[in-house]
């Protein structure tokens, strides 16, 4: 592929200004005092909160203390805890692929389709039927994200995922654009029978970090979306229309969540630094 279809997306109305705001917020977060000595603790707590928020968007709402308990091995019970544990495990996977703060290199990334399968296995291994875990859906109608219109047929999913991976891997567009496109396309495509939102949001966090926009890996965009799920899903529905206006709305939604999520991460860093978390 020679053309980069993502480069022009930053020039859609309002998108570049939103990206600049997100970048500024991430830069302020990056220089927080907590990252000098306790960056791993801040990232771990951010992962717990991101997992909790992402699970909440799937209807599994639990206190953050319960997610912390799961993170250190406490067993959960019931369907809600299985969904939360899966979300937590998905974020463990993406954190293992993030570069350390200040590192000059990052762990090698698996091929895109393999990465998605790995995140999906982590997210759904405790609650989805075994034949669907880590595998592209074989049914035309997925079990989640029904409000985004008709999903592409199962026969088209593998080719669409391959194309998306090619575009993502080869793009020179801003990291926010790359991460938002990957996130949004997974919501629209719904490549798995269920668990698509969890996978999409975990991948978004990973791509923001590996792309250099959020080197801390701590931006809490998931919390922003969980606090206002209807605008989040509405923006995804706009993206699903395939129009440039829909793409602009989605990109601004993602950029705004990063900017606000960086502010939320500062609060977490403050708490870790003061000893209130950790």
Architecture overview:
It is a single chain. It is built from eleven helices and no strands. With 278 residues, the protein is mainly α.
Please name the defining characteristics of this protein.
278 residues, mainly alpha, 11 helices, globular, Fic-like fold, 62% helix
Q: Which SSEs are present, and which pair or pack?
A:
Layout: H1 15-30, H2 39-57, H3 64-71, H4 78-96, H5 112-124, H6 154-170, H7 175-189, H8 196-210, H9 221-227, H10 229-240, H11 244-274
Quick gist of this model?
This protein has 278 residues and is an all-alpha fold. It has a single domain, classed as Fic-like fold. The chain has 11 helices and no strands.
Q: Summarize the helix and strand pattern as letters.
A: HHHHHHHHHHH
Portion of residues in beta strands equals under 5%
Count of alpha/pi helices: 11
CATH superfamily: Fido-like domain
- Supply the helix-strand structural class: mainly alpha
Count the strands?
0
